[in-house]
Write a structure and sequence with these properties.
The protein has eleven helices and no strands. The chain is mainly α and 204 residues long. InterPro entries: Homeodomain-like_sf, HTH_TetR, Tet_transcr_reg_TetR-rel_C_sf, YxaF_TetR_C.
């Protein structure tokens, strides 16, 4: 029986969403097309009716996963984002967590289309962290972008390093706690006026 265009699109979206979770959980090389299609409830033969290659699906599923993180970040103040992102809960939910932290290392070894998707995703996350192009303390666009990039790099790095440790390792939790506290302290300091920052730091 021939399926409708609407059903075909729904099927494609189901495959993309399934791939997004499986890739985050197992890595790009840890999931074969047959296993992926089976997890989505379809046969292996249907894959190439929907996608030209696994790389195409990797790029599309990465965009899907990054969009989820952007949606969660939109309108959220930087400290709140940091507390959520650099947490044990996020660390332990790889399949539904940030695609950037789960697959950033893998993406570096993938075709340009996949890396371009990650680059676009980074830009989207930076925009979500500074939606009007300025920081909450009135910093200009260049400063706001630099601050957002610093936050994003530190939060992603903290999750990657923590996940590299055994789940029951004290170091896994130490990395999260230290990085979270340092980032939050930096945000608090940058939010103060220049005079107050000098006073707090013991300057004249």
């Amino acid at each position: 029986m021939k399926i409708t265009k609407a059903q075909a699109q729904a099927n494609r979206e189901r495959v993309v969403e399934t791939a997004s979770k499986l890739f985050r959980e197992r890595g790009y090389d840890g999931v074969g097309v047959a296993d992926l299609m089976a997890a989505a409830g379809f046969t292996h033969g249907g894959f190439y009716k929907q996608f030209r290659s696994k790389a195409d699906l990797m790029a599309e599923s990465a965009a899907c996963g990054i969009a989820q993180t952007v949606a969660l970040s939109a309108g959220v103040e930087a400290p709140e984002f940091v507390r959520y992102y650099v947490s044990r809960e996020h660390r332990d939910t790889r399949a539904t967590g940030c695609t950037m932290a789960a697959l950033g290392g893998d993406a570096a070894r993938q075709p340009e289309a996949v890396r371009a998707t990650f680059a676009a995703g980074i830009e989207s996350l930076l925009a979500a962290l500074s939606p009007d192009g300025t920081a909450s303390d009135g910093a200009d666009p260049a400063q706001a972008r630099a601050r957002a990039l610093d936050i994003l790099a530190h939060t992603v790095g903290a999750i990657i390093m923590s996940r590299a440790c055994p789940d029951d390792s004290p170091l896994a939790d130490e990395i999260l706690a230290v990085c979270r506290d340092e980032i939050l302290a930096s945000l608090s300091q940058s939010a103060k006026s220049p005079v107050q920052a000098r006073v707090d730091s013991g300057g004249a």
